[in-house]
Specification:
The complex is a heterodimer of chains A (about 280) and B (about 325). Chain A is mainly alpha-helical and about 280 residues long. Chain A is about 75% helix and about 0% strand. In chain A, helix 3 packs antiparallel against helix 4. In chain A, strand 1 and strand 2 form a beta hairpin. Chain A is built from 12 helices and 2 strands, in the order H-H-E-E-H-H-H-H-H-H-H-H-H-H. Chain A is globular and about 70 Å long. In chain A, about 55% of the residues are buried. Chain B is mainly alpha-helical and about 325 residues long. Chain B has a domain of about 190 residues: Orthogonal Bundle (MetI-like fold). Chain B is built from 14 helices and 2 strands. In chain B, strands 1-2 form a two-stranded antiparallel ribbon. In chain B, helix 6 packs antiparallel against helix 8 and helix 7 crosses helix 8. The longest helix of chain B has about 35 residues. Chain B is globular. The chains are: A mainly alpha (about 280), B mainly alpha (about 325). Chains A and B meet through helix 1, helix 3, helix 4, helix 5 and helix 7 of A and helix 1, helix 2, helix 5, helix 6 and helix 7 of B.
Chain lengths: ~280, ~325
């Protein structure tokens, strides 16, 4: 009787924890949608900022964010493929394999603000690029590299050995096996990882605030040197610091809703592939 | 290549593979590039910050006087702020997150569990600047109102930052704790139930002891995120330099404005500092301290995860 009672209490306690966690997060999502929705309109996405964020729209902020995350994708995808191949093919079964995983963990653990300062020293000052979209793209690419690579590695390790043996049996060279079997078969891992990486890169402020983005006065980049872009997260970051003007407030929530929608959309796109990995990983 | 003999053991790498191919060469080149990036980042924080260690010695870590105009750089209050804020966030988020993880992994049916997990993982991706915005517009006022008996000066405090961080890391703790518990095989659960244990008893005496590595790793990974979070903390922490409690155990400083390493680094002082070598070295060394804190946490978490996966195999 007592034991059963204890079980009920424990179950209830954990249920309360889960309810608190889900409740807080649901409230957050609701608050943003409810306040941001009124600001959203066609003009909001096609006009540029006016009156320090109090009027106009966020056209160039969206463009800037897209430029940054597209660059991040271009930087991170080839690196991720290279590292995943070293991990999954060239070092397969070797004790050095764990070192690759460790490197990814280490890179993933570096706080994003430290990417920003690193970029400031190396790209902005030492290479003399000034604030440039390219710097931001490279930094974001390195920031999301672990996310992309781990998703790709997961996919590669679940490749059936029979595929590889069949390819080897046909007399293919290792590099031919890589190009005709390993890479096409693990493409879904690269797509998943890239989408998750893009989602993360789109929301980051710290790496780009000193290196790539400004609040107002930029349109399309005209080159590489001294060519900053506007961006959504930095826009929100600056407006949030003086959000007392109600007209700024509406635009601010609209921007936050847009950023949130962009990030969640990218992660949702990755969902079908992730679910399949989830299901495949469970044998019980 | 040193690893060639290993490649030979694979059935599908026989034949002409020993000749190093372009693909292989490129893969190693890209990996080297990533390693070079990490090494460059680490060494830069040591090299560029060197001047301040020569100037201040260990006083940089243990003195509480950050006055850059007078060339005094004692970062104690920021180290204190970082540790207090992250520790407080962990104190709030760990029990709730682990409880929620236990609930979703042990008590929910599979489909519902997947649905909850998807939502939680989506929410883990909310950008930190959005959390910061919510902190500024809701949490700050709420904390100010709730603490009014103690007369805080404003709603910007270490406490506010800690609560905000707790909310931010909650999904991470929950989903990773859930993963760790799901890693315990269901045969073990069934055996425990077969011995007459209630579900709760089987969780406490079978699942949790087996999953502890994964759960500790979950907490550490969340701690790593909390330590390194800059933007959200920056917006609500108050950014008051040199705040130091009269008594280390007093709770008063929690409800006062403070400064963390990350909020300092994200401030405009970074732009000012670049012109002055010593000031710049001080800022970079703050980064080095942060890097050391997160690296320790990450390395321990990594060890735990790798051991846990070896146990599975």
């Amino acid at each position: 009787m007592m034991r059963n009672f204890k079980h009920r209490v424990f179950q209830l306690a954990t249920a309360v924890c889960a309810a608190v966690a889900c409740g807080i997060l649901a409230m957050i999502a609701l608050a943003i949608v409810r306040r941001g929705w009124p600001a959203v309109s066609w003009q909001f996405y096609t006009e540029q900022i006016r009156l320090v964020g109090a009027a106009g729209g966020i056209f160039y902020n969206l463009i800037g964010t897209f430029i940054l995350i597209a660059t991040a994708l271009i930087v991170s995808a080839p690196l991720a493929v290279g590292i995943a191949l070293v991990h999954g093919v060239y070092l397969r079964g070797s004790r050095h394999q764990e070192k690759v995983t460790f490197l990814l963990y280490l890179l993933n653990g570096i706080p994003s603000i430290l990417f920003g300062l690193f970029g400031l020293i190396v790209f902005v000052k030492f290479f003399g690029l000034g604030k440039s979209w390219l710097t931001g793209g490279i930094l974001l690419g390195m920031l999301v590299l672990p996310t992309v690579t781990v998703a790709l590695c997961e996919r590669m390790t679940t490749l059936p050995a029979a595929y590889l043996e069949a390819a080897a049996g046909l007399g293919l060279r290792q590099s031919q096996i890589v190009w005709s079997v390993v890479l096409p078969q693990s493409l879904s891992g690269l797509i998943t990882g890239s989408l998750l990486g893009l989602a993360r890169a789109a929301g980051e402020t710290a790496p780009i605030m000193f290196t790539a983005t400004i609040f107002a006065g930029a349109t399309f980049p005209h080159g590489i040197k001294e060519s900053p872009v506007l961006s959504l997260p930095y826009h929100i970051f600056i407006l949030a610091q003086d959000s007392f003007d109600p007209s700024v407030g509406a635009k601010l929530w609209g921007s936050a809703l847009t950023l949130l929608a962009l990030v969640l959309f990218l992660s949702l796109l990755a969902l079908p592939w992730r679910l399949r990995i989830h299901e495949e990983a469970r044998h019980d | 290549m040193a690893s060639t003999p290993i490649a030979v053991q694979q059935p599908w790498s026989q034949g002409r593979t020993l000749r190093s191919s372009f693909t292989r060469w490129m893969s190693y080149a890209f990996s080297t590039l990533a390693i070079a990036f990490v090494l460059a980042l680490l060494s830069l924080y040591v090299w560029q910050g060197f001047a301040v260690w020569r100037h201040e010695g260990l006083g940089f870590l243990f003195e509480n006087n950050w006055f850059y105009r007078q060339q005094h750089f004692g970062a104690l209050s920021m180290v204190y702020g970082t540790i207090i804020v992250s520790g407080f966030a962990l104190l709030l988020a760990a029990p709730i997150g682990i409880g929620a993880g236990i609930f979703s992994s042990e008590f929910l049916p599979l489909r519902l569990r997947l649905a909850v997990k998807i939502i939680i993982e989506l929410l883990a991706g909310i950008p930190s600047v959005v959390y910061g915005l919510l902190g500024i517009l809701f949490l700050r006022d709420w904390v100010y109102g709730a603490l009014s008996p103690w007369e805080p000066l404003s709603g910007d405090s270490l406490l506010t930052a800690g609560i905000l961080l707790a909310v931010m890391i909650l999904p991470t703790v929950m989903t990773l704790a859930d993963d760790a518990l799901r890693g315990v095989s269901s045969a073990q659960r069934l055996a425990a139930r077969g011995l007459g244990l209630t579900q709760t008893e089987s969780i406490i005496s079978v699942c949790l002891p087996q999953a502890w590595r994964g759960i500790v790793a979950a907490i550490l990974l969340a701690l790593g995120r909390a330590l390194g979070e800059a933007i959200a903390v920056f917006l609500v922490v108050g950014r008051q330099d040199n705040q130091w409690p009269a008594n280390v155990f007093s709770l008063r400083p929690l409800i006062e404005s403070g400064q963390t390493i990350t909020s300092k680094l994200a401030s405009s002082e970074t732009n000012i500092a670049y012109g002055d070598p010593l000031h710049w070295a001080a800022m970079i060394s703050l980064g080095l301290v942060l890097l050391a804190l997160t690296a320790v946490v990450t390395v321990i978490a990594n060890r735990l995860v790798q051991r846990a996966s070896r146990h599975d195999a």
